[in-house]
Amino acid sequence: MTETLVYRVTIPAPPERVFARFTDARLMREWIGVAVELDARPGGALRIDVNGRDVVRGEFLALEPPERLSFTWGWEGAGRPVGPGASIVEVRLAPSGAGTQLELRHALLPDAALDVHRAGWEHYVPRLVAAAAGTPPGADPMATPATAHGGTDA
Known about the structure:
With 154 residues, the protein is an alpha+beta fold. Helix content is 21%, strand content 37%.
């Protein structure tokens, strides 16, 4: 059986600034990943070295700036319950007062992967909120010490 995780949060930043945090490698790395490579177009690749140990790989499915984007998501390496591209993340952004209402839906997750993905998004969504609001979230405590302050972007 597969499940969908849903996160809703208001971010004190315009939708364009939030959207850019998913489509610009340097800006994405502010909140998730020690290294990010992406080609923000339908069919374009996405690769995030999340913490120096775990690497996400997928591809962009849709980009409708600044309202919606979606991409596949899964983990490189053997024995992962969600392989590269096996699940889908959809992000919807709507103006809300002086900010943005974000809805992030992570679909097609097998039961065995729910807890780790729930914990991951509960850690990274607040970092996204801070980064988009202009408050750098700082070094990621989930990153390995050797990669916490380094990394490259493409």
